[in-house]
């Protein structure tokens, strides 16, 4: 009871029924299992196309400047601790304030649900509602955002993202590095350098994301999607290698150490 009241303080009344009869428990268990099954199926079938509302979360704002995370059925929070469904529930029934936020943002909502609005670019994932929420949440500092592209107006990044995706312009491909990576990207940048570029702002060519987003059908589709991933650090590669297409060759720090070596690696794969 108190856990629910803490998590969702806007709930006015909560009813709890305690069952002791084994027969009642058995019948209720069957109904609950069926409900959970239907609920899982409902969530599984949700897409950006058949959902009218997206969600925004600013929980990381105190240490991530203008960061505003947008969550959709096809893109969960880059920290991986927030899903679209849980964020929407919190937006309607949870706390709307950040107790430690800056005085200049005293009226900023912790989480909110908003109408996605008109679809402006299906490939990059640009929606009128997302642009409006960025304008509103950043005090007009940012006015455009792409949900599924690194180039131009990517999502802002927090400081606790699971992975970073970055555009490698020399080969027109996507690189991905996970938080625990000790290696360097082909261009010589470390996790710390990349994270400092992305954290708390909108940085052209780089953005934080969760591992689950890599498995999304909309994963960076504006940049070629999973088919255009050309470099991944080895530990992460082992976790997502099932996503790559038959014959698709993706380099890791074990195969290449520089952009020139990456060019050679990809050229060799094209010829084979």
List keywords for this structure.
272 residues; Bifunctional carbon monoxide dehydrogenase/acetyl-coa synthase(codh/acs), Chain M, domain 5; 2 domains; three-stranded antiparallel sheet; ACS_CODH_B_C; alpha+beta; anaerobic carbon-monoxide dehydrogenase activity; 9 strands; globular; CO_DH/Ac-CoA_synth_bsu
Describe it for me?
The protein is α+β, with helices and mostly antiparallel strands and about 270 residues long. The chain has eight helices and nine strands. It has helices spanning about 1-5, 20-45, 85-95, 130-135, 190-200, 210-215, 235-240, 260-270, and strands at about 55, 70, 110-115, 120, 125, 165-170, 175-180, 205-210, 230. The strands form three sheets. Strands 8-6-7-9 form a four-stranded mixed sheet. About 35% of the residues are buried. The mean pLDDT is about 90.
Secondary-structure blueprint:
Layout (H helix, E strand, L loop, with lengths): L1 H6 L14 H23 L8 E5 L11 E3 L12 H10 L17 E5 L3 E3 L4 E2 H10 L25 E6 L4 E6 L12 H8 L7 E4 L1 H4 L14 E4 L1 H7 L18 H13 L1
Parallel strand pairs: 7-9
Antiparallel strand pairs: 1-2, 1-3, 4-5, 6-7, 6-8
Order of helices and strands: HHEEHEEEHEEHEHEHH
* CATH homolog superfamily of the largest domain: Bifunctional carbon monoxide dehydrogenase/acetyl-coa synthase(codh/acs), Chain M, domain 5
Task: State the end-to-end distance.
Answer: 62 Å
Round the Cα radius of gyration to an integer and report it: 21 Å
Largest sheet: 4 strands, mixed
Mean of pLDDT: 91
Helix content: 25-40%
Number of strands: 9
Shape: globular
Number of helices: 8
Major sheet: arrangement of strands? 8-6-7-9
Number of domains: 2
CATH secondary-structure class of the largest domain? Alpha Beta
CATH architecture of the largest domain: 3-Layer(aba) Sandwich
Uncertain residue segments: none
Strand percentage:
5-15%
CATH overall fold name of the largest domain: Bifunctional carbon monoxide dehydrogenase/acetyl-coa synthase(codh/acs), Chain M, domain 5
Structural class: alpha+beta
Assembly classification: single chain
């Amino acid at each position: 009871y108190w856990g629910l009241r803490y998590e969702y303080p806007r709930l006015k009344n909560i009813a709890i029924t305690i069952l002791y009869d084994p027969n009642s428990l058995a019948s209720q268990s069957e109904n609950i299992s069926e409900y959970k099954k239907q609920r899982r199926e409902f969530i599984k079938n949700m897409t950006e196309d058949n959902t009218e509302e997206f969600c925004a979360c600013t929980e990381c704002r105190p240490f991530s400047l203008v960061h505003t995370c947008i969550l959709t059925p096809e893109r969960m929070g880059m920290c991986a601790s927030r899903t679209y469904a849980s964020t929407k529930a919190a937006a309607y029934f949870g706390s709307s304030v950040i107790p430690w936020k800056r005085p200049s943002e005293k009226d900023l909502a912790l989480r909110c649900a908003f109408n996605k609005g008109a679809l402006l670019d299906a490939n990059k994932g640009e929606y009128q509602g997302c642009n409006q929420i960025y304008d509103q949440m950043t005090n007009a500092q940012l006015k455009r955002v792409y949900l599924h592209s690194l180039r131009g107006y990517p999502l802002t990044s927090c400081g606790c993202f699971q992975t970073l995706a970055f555009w490698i312009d020399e080969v027109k491909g996507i690189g991905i590095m996970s938080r625990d990576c000790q290696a360097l990207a082909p261009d010589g940048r470390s996790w710390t350098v990349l994270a400092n570029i992305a954290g708390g702002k909108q940085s052209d060519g780089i953005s934080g994301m969760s591992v689950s987003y890599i498995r999304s059908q909309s994963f960076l589709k504006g940049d070629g999607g999973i088919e255009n991933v050309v470099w991944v650090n080895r530990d992460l590669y082992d976790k997502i290698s099932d996503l790559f297409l038959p014959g698709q060759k993706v380099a890791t720090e074990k195969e290449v150490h520089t952009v020139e070596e990456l060019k050679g690696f990809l050229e060799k794969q094209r010829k084979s």
